[in-house]
Amino acid sequence: MANHNGDAHDNSKWSLNVNTRYFKSYKHFRGDHEEKERVEKNTEVINHNVSTDLTLTRVLNNRWSLFFNLPVISNTRSSLYEHDGRTRHMTRSFGIGDVRFGAYAWLLSPEKMTKGNIQLGLGVKLPTGDYKYQDYFYKNDSTQVLGPVDQSIQLGDGGTGFTVELNSYYNFNKTVGTYANFYYLLNPREQNGTSTARGGTPSVTNVRNGSSVMSVPDQYMWRAGGNFNFNNIVASAGVRMECVPSDDLIGGSSGFRRPGYVISAEPGITYTGKKINIYSFVPVALKRNRTQSYADKIQTRKTGNHTIGDAAFADYAINVGVSFKF
Q: For the chain, what are the domain ranges?
């Protein structure tokens, strides 16, 4: 995501941003109800997700810029139910994710709007990440089955998508300012054909409700808050929401997905230099909700019983990064 707090007035032509995000998801929710017994009984699924985004930006003039984003991803997933149900085993994935490129434009004249501005970003996401990544699942002490890993640790989603961003800031004075960001990924492709059976045979129920193969879901995020400047240090405090919706804006929504959202408090701190920024943001979850998926809704209509799957969420995420201007 482009820096939104003053790049419109910088003369650098290139910038490189390196951002690493880490989180551990292990607390299970159905709706907004936490299933605390999963952790108590050691049956929870534990994901460790690490992604490093490399974003290269070329400033064309004081209003337009181009960007290219390359994610490098390393994930692990520990569970019982995906294996023999008695012993905890781990599956892994590592590689590049789905690359993204596009353009940004400041909507207001930087010369006239010296205190704030709004930036529009449009991009394309390509399915360069392996969305059929495989690892071994342990069925018993002597049998292992090779199959696609869970959707939550796949390196890509298999779809060509389109992104829309809005980044804005306004500085009241040299000390206090505000920021707001919005990001939406549209994925027109409905399913990517990757089996959810982990090397086995899909169940009759999963075939009937369309969850035997993975969906290619939309995603969106928004965040807003305030900045407080103290010489070269900027302290931030804000709110962040991240969501995988049940239904896509364009195209169908069938296939397996775990829709839901997280609302977090997001403190942050940034060191600002002439050609380098170093930052850290740590969103801490305030509300987590696993909503009904497309497959859940089909199952509810067929059986008459309200059906909703579970999903594991993290308590917090750690975002650290550095950007260079040259």
A: 7-325
